Amino acid sequence: MILTNLKGEATIKQTPTSRNTIIVGAGLAGCLLARRLRAAGESVLVFGDSTKSCAASVAAGVINPVTGRWAVKSWQIDALLPEAERSYRAIEAELGIEIYHPIPLRRFCQNEADLKRIGRRSRNPRYADVLGNLSPPGEAPDALRDSCGSFEIHGAAYVDLPPLLEALRADLLSAQSYREGSFDHKTLRQGTDQGWHYEDCFAERIVFCEGAAVTQNPFFPDLPMKPVKGETLAFRCPELELPRSIFHNGKWLLPYGENRYRIGATYDEDDLSESPTASAKASLLKGLADILKTVPELEIEHHMAGLRPSTQDARPIMGKHPDHKGLFLLNGLGSKGASLAPLMTRQFAEYLLEGRPLDPETDLARFA
Ligand SMILES: Cc1cc2nc3c(=O)[nH]c(=O)nc-3n(C[C@H](O)[C@H](O)[C@H](O)COP(=O)(O)OP(=O)(O)OC[C@H]3O[C@@H](n4cnc5c(N)ncnc54)[C@H](O)[C@@H]3O)c2cc1C
Q1: What digits encode the pLDDT tens for the residues 319-349?
Q2: Most confidently modeled of 107-111, 123-127, 313-317?
Q3: Ligand 1 atom closest to 335 (CA)
Q4: Integer distance in angstroms from the first to the last C-alpha of the chain?
Q5: Do 171 and 211 belong together in one domain?
Q6: Nearest residue (CA) to ligand 1, atom 18
Q7: Residues 213 and 230 in one domain
Q8: Same domain, 351 and 231
Q9: What is the DSSP track for 343-356?
Q10: The overall pTM is greater than 0.85
Q11: Whose CA is nearest to atom 48 of ligand 1?
């Protein structure tokens, strides 16, 4: 067996191999889970297909503790935030990369009712750590539309996901724990020996971390997934100078510095193709015009599209297959993978290795 690197070049000759765990999917969930299992002394082999669509490759990686129309704290955010910061910082230190970027986030009120609601919320002690003062209209940077006022959200960050994945996959590759190529479910065979055979590999367990592609997984045909397509634009705009902060006004605008920006994102539950569309581009440019008083000339560098692995009840899904011993799943990170993945992979690893029960809100068994 020839092992290839991320560019598809042959690198290492590998003999038939036996591992504790095969992970299918080298996206955010798969790579972080592999790291957790390896840290606990487990042997893993991750199958990743760099030609396939990957949500984490197009995501901005924004972590925002207060979200949605009603501006409420995201599900479990008080536990998710510290775990995310700890995990990403540990990866940065270990792999010599910089990917975790805390950044202020300013959200603009849409109308008077919004302003009143946020005002009430900011007096709620449960929000003291995440909601800053309300600023009256006109106090935001001059380039921005600000007719109803805005407020600061503390604890926000963005995680540079593409270099994170690249570093995690390279680390797995150097430990002979990564194999490039599409995992073919039809080739998987249950052994008589308490495990699963796949090509030349044997593993005690298989964990599927396929993101939105799980809808094609024949072992989990009826999962209540609800993939949502998203698109973003990365652009350069020499005439636009904004302070280092995410600006959220309908859509979000993320300045990277040196006149480079990202605007996102669209939500489409009907078109589940993976290619960028002219209509989403128009919607993103309209969103930009709603954020800025005037839109200077800009150069679009990348127009990206992907499928968020969302679920019908907007919660992650993890756990064991109801009938096939040794088959597991970790999915459903939806539009919040950057904040969810560190804690969800930790809880899943503890479930797998220490037998700790899963949170009933995330356990796949809730759909039994
Ligand atoms: C436009 C857009 C913007 C987003 N913005 C944000 C954001 O700002 N903040 C945030 O937190 N989240 C954001 N997300 C969501 C985030 O990307 C996801 O929550 C996260 O990537 C989910 O991780 P995952 O590992 O489950 O899936 P993915 O990251 O999609 O990874 C799954 C991987 O499995 C691989 N795979 C599937 N089947 C196979 C197979 N048979 N063989 C081999 N490999 C396979 C896929 O190719 C892929 O690489 C955004 C998503 C989109 C589309």
Answers
A1: 999 999 999 999 999 999 999 999 999 999 9
A2: 313-317
A3: 15
A4: 40
A5: yes
A6: 337
A7: no
A8: no
A9: HHHHHHHHHHHH-P
A10: yes
A11: 54
